[in-house]
Automatic annotation (TrEMBL):
Domain EF-hand: 64-99
Name used for this protein in its record: EF-hand calcium binding domain 10
A Pfam cross-reference name: EF_EFCAB10_C
Gene Ontology MF terms in the entry: calcium ion binding
InterPro entries xref list: DD_EFCAB10 (IPR049760), EF-hand-dom_pair (IPR011992), EF_EFCAB10_C (IPR056587), EF_hand_dom (IPR002048), EFC10 (IPR039879)
Matching CDD domains: DD_EFCAB10
């Protein structure tokens, strides 16, 4: 969707600069993945943990640990080949709020192994958190 006015362009640039849409997508995905009883309190706790990590200079919080990432990969790799397709990979990243619908991925024809999937989930999560 094209920005129609200078104000819309300014708003879009602001959202992109601060990666607000990625944060909102990630938070929404976390809500749907964990389905907490009290969603507002859950979101507040995530943002508070992020704030504390930034102030204290400690590692940023990850809400998808390796067991969650492995479980997701295993669901996608139902034939137990050790790889998932590029389409599955992109859809998983979109579901987690870690990529946009229009992001382009290069297909090398070999599939995506677990280590690459895990690495990308962690890397993209860190990139989102680091923007704040």
């Amino acid at each position: 969707m094209e920005a129609r006015s200078p104000r819309e362009l300014e708003a879009r640039n602001y959202l992109e600069k601060h990666r607000i849409m990625e944060l909102l997508n990630y938070l929404t995905s976390a809500l749907l993945f964990f389905r907490p009883e009290k969603p507002r309190q859950y979101l507040i706790s995530i943002l508070e943990r992020l704030r504390i990590a930034k102030i204290a200079g400690v590692a940023l919080p990850f809400f998808m640990d390796n067991s969650n990432i492995a479980a997701m990969f295993e669901m996608l790799d139902s034939s137990n080949r050790g790889t998932i397709s590029l389409t599955q990979y992109k859809e998983a990243l979109k579901t987690l709020g870690l990529c946009t619908a229009d992001e382009v991925f290069k297909d090398d024809g070999h599939g995506i192994p677990f280590e690459k999937f895990r690495h990308e989930v962690n890397k993209r999560t860190l990139e989102i958190w680091s923007a704040f």
